[in-house]
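*** Fold description ***
***
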Amino acid sequence: MKNIILGIVALLLIGGGIYFLMNQTPDTVVIVDENEEMMPVEPDGGIGDGAPPLNEVIAQQRGPESVIGTSVDGTEIMAFHFGTGANEVLFVGGTHGSDAPSTMKVAEELVAYLESNPSVIPANVAVTIIPNLNPDGATKSGAAGRFNANNVDLNRNFDCEWSATGVWRNQEVSGGSKPFSEPEAQALKQYVDTYNPSAAVVWFASEGKVYPSACAGTPSDQSVTLAATFANAAGYGVEAEFDAYAITGDMVNWMAKQDIPAISVLLTGRDNTEWTKNKAGIEAVLNSYAN
């Protein structure tokens, strides 16, 4: 009789334990099919579903305009940004200050045009405009404005066949104490090194021609194509090389050294922006980088 009672108690205990276990809800239940390949989990901070592509992240971080550096006298050098495409085209004006005010004005016209007409920028293209690389020179009068506050020609201060003494027309000009000795040139270099634009267009004056870039060699096919694209649309002449006098420390040629297709657009005059012509050249270049 005692054994029967113990057996009944044991059965009751086992049955209660089974009931308890069946009515518990585990914190986490993982069911794994041995034949199913498990997807890797993306670590925190990765760009997953719904996250913007990297170029959009950059656009959000720097906003519609940014300060890329300061001049010798401490004036901010501004850049204006449009679009979020992967192919960034850089436009630069004002390298020679008040000696070539048309180059600043045409860049400012481009800023205003894109603010009013953002749809002209193809989806895969971004645009950055630096209207005035030499703000100290812009405050001077006439030819004196070609130089920065250290009396250096910024377009002789870049690291391509640099020389401490350069030439402009028939006179000597300072190329600085070394490549990138000037804060304005440093600012442009830092921007290019950071964002690595797909192409660059730099305005100068005055001749009414377009030149591809090259550093101690022949222009790349990309620079030649870029020059022809702008010139043909704008109605400017195009030449393979500027040979009126020796150019040392040139900004555009330095970009070629960095494997960036770049061109010099020499406006016809120092005051007239020739906006209609330049607008056509700009849009042709932007469309050429749409794919």
Summary: The CA atoms of residues 70 and 76 lie 4 Å apart. Residues 1-49 have pLDDT under 50 and may be disordered. The longest helix spans residues 2-22.
